[in-house]
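Q: I'm building a small set of examples for a reading group on sequence design. Run inverse folding on the following structure and report the sequence directly after it, with nothing in between.
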């Protein structure tokens, strides 16, 4: 069975939470690339939203407040390429599965 919230089908768990709770997670968690000025502006808005949530939905407000204490969300690279991964290659004379101390 597909999970559909408000006529939209979430692809990730984060999208499902955003649709189910009606809040933008990045508003409360931030971005790893935001400047100090952007962070200050985002936190101002987040605190205003949090104040309204406390009145209308205390449970969601408690969740949003806990998000404020988390590390910023990682953002995807803007050029569309996937991040590079380290490739381990076997060294001559060693078994293919052995680990080399770095």
């Amino acid at each position: 069975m597909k999970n559909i919230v408000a006529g939209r089908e979430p692809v990730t768990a984060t999208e499902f939470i955003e649709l189910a709770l009606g809040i933008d997670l990045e508003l409360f968690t931030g971005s790893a690339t935001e400047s100090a000025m952007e962070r200050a502006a985002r936190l101002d808005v987040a605190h205003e939203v949090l104040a309204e949530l406390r009145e209308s939905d205390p449970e969601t407000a408690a969740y949003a407040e806990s998000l404020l204490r988390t590390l910023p969300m990682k953002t995807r690279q803007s050029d569309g390429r996937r991040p590079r991964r380290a490739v381990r290659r076997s060294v001559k004379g060693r078994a293919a599965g052995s680990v080399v101390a770095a």
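The mean pLDDT is 75.
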